[in-house]
Amino acid sequence: MTDNNASQFGGRLLIGATGSGAVAMLPMYLSALRAQFTGTVTVLMTHTAATFLPAHTMALFADKVVTADSPASWPIDNHVSLAAEHDLMAVLPATANTLAAAASGAAPNLLGTTLLHATYPVVFFPVMTGDMWTKPAVQRNVTQLREDGYAVVEPDWGPRYDVGLKAFVDSPMPPAPPKFIQQLRSMLS
Prior knowledge:
- The chain is α/β, with parallel strands linked by helices.
- It has nine helices and eight strands.
- The strands form two sheets. Strands 3-2-1-4-5-6 form a six-stranded parallel beta sheet, sandwiched between helices.
């Protein structure tokens, strides 16, 4: 008989969800995570992320969803409280825009201010086109983030359907859920 609890781990996880079409896959990641993760999950969605994936849908998979859309929530769900209430932040998907803002110390939204205020580990899971990922500016931002102590997971490459091109292209992919979970587990240990 095996101990099912041996593979479980916990903590207070904050997931930053940004404006990439890949955010539509976030419920799949959280479903897979829940099989092993016993802690709390808060999802902080940028405005564009909430355009791709409604917050009320995300709420079916997370303990709490924060969008900063309502000024009534600002005194409760702000960068200070979000940073204080969590042990780890994972940004999935991490767009080129989000990487650039974090690398330069910009705070264009609640996710940016929370990243600046966080004193715990932060891991970025980049998702963008291959042409974007290989640009020198994006690579400089990734290097800067790593030098600043952030973890940036090197994306795997694979076929992705490009709606604009109406064809499959080889590009950076979101990590497979087991890789995502293993990265979180190692950072919360």
